[in-house]
């Protein structure tokens, strides 16, 4: 559904000016930061010595996506207080990944991708299963981010959904292409500051203008279930979202590439601090949706609720602030995902399967080509929003991938800490967890897919390891050495 | 069991307060790293 230009909150002229100004800023910053990249390692891992400030900001910015700034209000509107509290539990993914990041850096000082780890730890079959899971998730997230961009621009400025989505995607592809991970991390710092300032500004003004008494009174009158602490679907969503967030972070190369890129002794502190600072963001961004009854706002599509409330409370200023915040949030996640996914495809598909002897320079060029191809694929999928059965609302797309990511949690954790974990159990755990998670997604609802996926995957892994434990030498993980030109083969039988 | 207006307000105000402090902390860390040549 497209919002017509005459009913938009932000004049298209202002929207285009903001788009142009921030597009130039991100692209220029990306070019400047990445101008000295000479090798695939420079481009993919920013020199492997990122400090605490930039590391914390990039972890935060990547996790504060448009899904946070737009889906958190949507979930608050649909599931009430547990919707926003449940979303904030996504912070536990960052916090729990902190010790993993330290261990990853110690065990794999030369590692590039999460695929490197699975290949060396569990062997080729599990690696290929993992790549399918990881790439489906990455693509689902990319599409949901691109959709969010189109929805935002359309909701606020009346600019056609496909035009807005195309502009945002093009800008992110361009600066990721120019600067690699260094550009991504540098822009993330600026974007984090912008996002938090904007979100808190809107929240404080909503509190001031509407007030909690009015919000609470009107909800009790019109939507009392949103205040119910025993709302069953919302409680299931809470645990589902916890596992979804943990699964996303534990398996995704977005977070692994940062663990490899952060300086020694930085990863643990950066992920911990980022998680603690991220925790309140969904509550801050989400609670404004609870003000819709008090404000008398008619919400045509649930995922537009955040921008609509901000514009109602703050008028033109609110629309401008929301526009800038979501553009920054979109860019900070889209760039990370483009960079990390292109790395994964280059290392694990191109070099791992197609050209095992690819040189550093060939990988460097291949990574850039992959960024462009991923951008094009994402554009095609996001262009058909609402016209393909699965590609519906933002939340629907996001949580569709829940079964995939949650099924990878235990294979990753066991792979890092459990010497005897069975490789076939890890592979079949991901397959069975994803399969049954998807069945539950369609049979029960989006809020249980990750729960089922994680539980089934754990059960399969435990049974296989109990029946056939395998010993593993941790030193084999250090074989992910890119400079000797030899691709290490599978690490487990 | 419904959450009260007071409880809802307290949680949201604390969350917004913590979020407001985050940019200050990040900028302080940036300056700290920059002065010591540890940004990258």
Biggest sheet layout of chain A: none
Assembly level? heterodimer
Indicate the low-confidence ranges of chain A by residue numbers. 482-493
| Helical stretch tally of chain B | 1
- Total beta-strand segments of chain B: 0
Secondary-structure-based class of chain B equals mainly alpha
Largest sheet of chain B: none
Distance between the termini of chain A: 52 Å
Q: End-to-end distance of chain B, in Å?
A: 50 Å
Segments of chain B where pLDDT lies below 50 for 5+ residues? none
Task: Output the helix-strand order of chain B.
Answer: H
User: Can you count the helices of chain A?
Assistant: 22
Helix content of chain A: over 70%
Rg value of chain A: 22 Å
Give a quick rundown of the structure.
By secondary structure, chain A is mainly α. Helix content of chain A is 75%, strand content 0%. In chain B, 78% of the residues lie in helices and 0% in strands.
Description:
- The complex is a heterodimer of chains A (493) and B (40).
- Chain A is mainly α and 493 residues long.
- Chain A has one domain (5-109, 120-228, 262-393).
- Helix content of chain A is 75%, strand content 0%.
- Chain A contains 22 helices and no strands.
- Chain A has helices at 12-34, 40-45, 52-63, 66-79, 81-88, 91-107, 114-122, 124-157, 161-209, 212-222, 232-251, 253-261, 267-278, 281-286, 292-295, 305-354, 360-383, 394-400, 402-406, 409-417, 423-443, 449-467.
- In chain A, helix 4 packs across helix 16 (305-354) and helix 6 (91-107) packs parallel to helix 11 (232-251).
- The termini of chain A are far apart.
- Chain B is mainly α.
- In chain B, 78% of the residues lie in helices and 0% in strands.
- Chain B has one helix at 5-35.
- The radius of gyration of chain B is 17 Å and the shape is rod-shaped.
- The model of chain B has no long low-confidence stretch (mean pLDDT 93).
- The A-B interface holds A 46-47, 49-54, 56-57, 60, 81, 88, 182, 189, 192-193, 196-197, 199-200, 203-204, 207, 212-213, 215-217, 220, 224, 227-230, 263, 277, 279-281, 283-284, 287, 290 and B 1-6, 8-9, 11-16, 18-20, 22-23, 25-27, 29-30, 32-34, 38-40.
């Amino acid at each position: 559904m497209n919002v017509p230009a005459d009913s938009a909150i932000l004049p298209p002229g202002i929207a285009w000016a903001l788009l142009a100004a921030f597009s130039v800023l991100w692209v220029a910053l990306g070019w400047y930061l990445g101008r000295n990249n000479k090798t695939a390692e420079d481009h993919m891992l920013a020199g492997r010595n990122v400090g605490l400030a930039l590391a914390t900001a990039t972890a935060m910015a990547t996790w504060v996506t448009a899904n946070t700034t737009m889906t958190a209000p949507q979930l608050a509107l649909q599931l009430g207080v547990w919707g926003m509290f449940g979303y904030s539990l996504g912070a536990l993914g960052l916090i729990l990944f902190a010790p993993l990041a330290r261990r990853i850096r110690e065990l794999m000082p030369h590692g590039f991708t999460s695929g490197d780890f699975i290949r060396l730890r569990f062997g080729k079959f599990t690696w290929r299963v993992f790549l399918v899971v990881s790439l489906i998730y990455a693509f689902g997230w990319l599409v949901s981010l691109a959709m969010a961009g189109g929805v935002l621009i359309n909701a606020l400025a009346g600019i056609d959904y496909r035009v807005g989505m195309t502009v945002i995607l093009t800008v992110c592809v361009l600066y990721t292409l120019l600067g690699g991970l260094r550009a991504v991390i540098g822009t993330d710092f600026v974007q984090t500051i912008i996002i938090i300032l904007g979100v808190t500004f809107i929240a404080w003004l909503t509190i001031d203008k509407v007030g909690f008494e009015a919000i609470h009174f009107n909800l009790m009158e019109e939507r009392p279930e949103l205040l119910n602490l025993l709302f069953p679907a919302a409680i299931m969503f809470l645990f589902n979202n916890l596992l979804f967030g943990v699964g996303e972070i534990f398996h995704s190369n977005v977070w692994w590439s940062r663990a490899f890129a952060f300086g020694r002794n930085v990863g643990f502190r950066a992920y911990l601090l980022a998680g603690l600072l991220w925790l309140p963001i969904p509550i801050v961004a989400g609670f404004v949706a609870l003000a819709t009854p008090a404000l008398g706002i008619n919400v045509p599509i649930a995922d537009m609720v955040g921008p609509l409330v901000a514009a109602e409370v703050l008028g033109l200023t609110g629309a401008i602030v929301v526009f800038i915040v979501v553009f920054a949030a979109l860019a900070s996640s889209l760039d990370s995902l483009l960079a990390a996914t292109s790395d994964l495809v280059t290392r694990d598909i191109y070099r791992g399967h197609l050209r095992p002897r690819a040189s550093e320079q060939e990988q460097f060029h291949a990574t850039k080509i992959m960024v462009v191809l991923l951008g094009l694929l994402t554009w095609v999928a996001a262009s058909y929003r609402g016209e393909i059965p699965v590609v519906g609302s933002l939340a629907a797309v996001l949580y569709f991938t829940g079964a995939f990511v949650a099924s990878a949690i235990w294979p990753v954790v066991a792979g890092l800490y459990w010497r005897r974990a069975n490789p076939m159990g890890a592979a079949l755990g991901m397959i069975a967890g994803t399969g049954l998670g998807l069945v539950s997604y369609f049979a029960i609802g989006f809020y249980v897919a990750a729960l089922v996926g994680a539980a089934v995957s754990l059960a399969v892994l435990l049974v296989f390891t109990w029946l056939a434990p395998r010993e593993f030498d941790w030193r084999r993980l250090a074989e992910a050495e890119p400079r000797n030109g030899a691709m290490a083969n599978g690490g487990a039988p | 069991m419904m959450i009260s207006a007071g409880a809802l307000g307290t949680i949201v105000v604390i969350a917004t307060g913590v979020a407001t402090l985050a940019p200050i902390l990040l900028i302080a860390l940036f300056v700290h790293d920059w002065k010591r040549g540890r940004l990258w």
